[in-house]
Each structure stands twice: as C-alpha cells, then as structure tokens.
Design goal:
elongated, about 70% helix, about 290 residues, Serine Threonine Protein Phosphatase 5, Tetratricopeptide repeat
Length: about 290
C-alpha cells in the first residue's frame, strides 16, 4: 500500500530501558554512584546480561571502591561484546583491583578495535606510565595519533612525553598539532611556551606566555616564564617586573622560584643578601 503524501509514521521515542540507563549515567556524572547502582539494578532485573547496564554498574562499583565486584560484572559483559568502551572500563576496574597486567592486556585488545576508541589509548598511556614503561607509551600514542588525527588529547599527551625527554622538536610539533585542534587547552599552551623557552625561541615563547596570562592573569608560573623570556630579549625592566609580580602571588613557592629564576637568567640579576631580594620584590629603589 502506497504511503499518503505528507504523512509519516509516528517516530518512536527512547525506550523505558534507555531512559532508565540515561538516569543512571546522569547519577554517575553527579558523583552519585550508589544512586546509579540502584537505578541500573532495575534494568538488570529484566535482562541480567545487558552490556550497557553492566558497564554502568561496573563504573558505579569502581567509584565506591568495590573493584572486585566491578570486575566480575564487566567481565561478564565483555564476554558478550567487542565494545572497546566496555573493555576500557574493565581495564580501569582491573587496575583498581590490583590486576595491572590483566588490565594492560585488555587495553591492548581495546586499542586494536576498529573504529579506534580514543579513551582506550589514553587509559593505556596512563597505565603504562604508572608502570614506568615510557617507551611503550610513546609507541602506542604514536599509533593513536596516526589513527585518530582529529583527537587533540593524543598529540598533547605524546607531546608531554617528548618534552619530559627534552626532545623539544617532537614535543613542539605535537603540542602545536594538539592546540590546532583544541586552542582552549591552556595546559598545552603553557607546555609549548616552556618548550620554546628551553629551545631559545624567546620571542615566540613570550607570545605564548602572554596568551596564557590573557586567560588567567594570576598564573604565576606563566608570568615567571614571560619574565625570563623578556630578560633574555634584553627587556630587563619589564622582565623583572613580571617576575616580581609572580613572586608576590599567594603561592609561597613562587618567591623561591622567582629568586632562582632571576639568579639563573643569562641577563638577569642576583643578590648576595636576602634583604636586597626582599627590597626588589617590594619594588623599592636601590635594587
């Protein structure tokens, strides 16, 4: 029978199951795992092996420090699914239960799924780093960046690893790639500024630090970085003023960091007496 023009069958809304699971997800997001557990139990009464319900229950149990229980539920769901999201949550539960080697194995399965699942790469990175397996983490993230070039977090995390190794060329390239995708990532912007500073690119680094300070003028570390760059660029008074402002911040560590920075800057200044340093911070004459 032909359809009448202008008429369409009524669309179906979300099922009762879907609505219930969404309520459980919201409870998790609101940091109410006990409530999420109670909600999802209603779905599991009707379908004991519902993979999505078991995944949410596993997350709720991990958040309640009941990792062993979470593993049992998530393993049951994983046996009936090849979902990398579910495998990633199983790996988190295994790690929480002290079963790190099993967690790593599960994550290797998860990152092999297609289409690739970004969170699996990020969780595997975290777990490998916790075990001190930095080379493996770098190799794995390089695969992730190649497979998921649109996911900003992957090049940013890989950039951090290269920066930690003082591989400034690779660190800078990857941080730029991440920032092109996520320009709001101020942590990556600061890391790139610091990398450029360490590489002697003081003009560009200063611009990056200024961008950080444009978003957060109270970022004392960015202000010290800007001050150092300005000192190196022979803008001594402006550089010293930025460092002075950072040393006056509410973070007591900034005073010592500022002093060390000034003493070590190639065109900075240092004091032989603490009283001279204190006068500088107060902006008194004769410094």
């Amino acid at each position: 029978m032909a359809k009448l023009p202008g008429f369409a069958p009524p669309s179906r809304g979300p099922s009762v199951r879907d609505q219930t699971l969404q309520e459980a997800v919201i409870a998790l997001q609101m940091q109410r795992p006990d409530q999420a557990e109670r909600i999802v139990a209603e779905v599991l009464k009707a379908s004991r092996n519902d993979p999505r319900a078991l995944q949410i229950l596993g997350q709720a149990l991990v958040l309640q420090a009941r990792a062993d229980e979470a593993v049992e539920r998530l393993e049951r769901a994983a046996r009936r699914s090849e979902d990398p999201a579910l495998e990633t949550h199983l790996a988190i539960a295994l790690r929480a239960a002290g079963r790190g080697d099993e967690a790593i194995n599960v994550l290797h399965h998860a990152i092999s799924r297609r289409p690739p699942y970004p969170a699996a790469f990020l969780e595997l990175n975290q777990q490998l780093l916790a075990l001190g397996r930095h080379d493996e983490a770098i190799d794995m993230l390089r695969r992730g960046v190649a497979l998921l070039p649109e996911v900003a977090e992957l090049p940013i995390q890989l950039g951090y690893l290269y920066a930690a190794r003082n591989d400034r060329k690779n660190a800078g390239a990857l941080l730029r790639q991440g920032l092109a995708l996520a320009p709001e990532r101020l942590d990556a912007l600061f890391a790139l500024a610091h990398t450029l500073q360490m590489d002697g690119a003081f003009t560009e680094a200063a611009d990056m630090y200024r961008r950080c300070l444009g978003h957060n003028p109270d970022n004392a570390e960015a202000r010290i970085g800007l001050g150092v760059c300005l000192l190196e660029l022979r803008e001594v008074e402006s550089g010293a003023d930025n460092i002075r402002r950072a040393m006056r911040s509410s973070n007591p560590k900034m005073f010592g960091q500022g002093l060390a920075t000034l003493a070590g800057a190639a065109r900075g200044r240092f004091w032989l007496r603490p009283s001279d340093a204190a006068r500088f911070v107060r902006g008194e004459a004769g410094r």
